[in-house]
Amino acid sequence: FRKAHQGRGRYEMEIQKDRRIKTEIGLSKKVIEQTIGRGKKVKFFAYPWGAYDESLIIKLKQEGYQGALAGDLGGNSPGDDPFKMKRILVTSEMTVEDLQDLIR
Asked: What's the pTM value of the predicted model, to 2 decimals?
């Protein structure tokens, strides 16, 4: 397959994917903390395009994250999984009243 499809992308084994993701998570956290400085710590993560799975949540916890923002729309309640936090969509066309309606 690879020989017939050269140049169409690269493939990685699951172990390689796990290492790459762990490195990307840890490195981005380190770079942000160094950039912010003053001892500030990165505690939350936003899933790219809102995509995540349970293995990613495990890796985030191992790196010391306290929660993450998913792509699901809605509100959050006490006791909800902090690694599956929902969001509300706020646009520039919204009024203050629109925003108040969203967060009630």
From this structure: 0.73
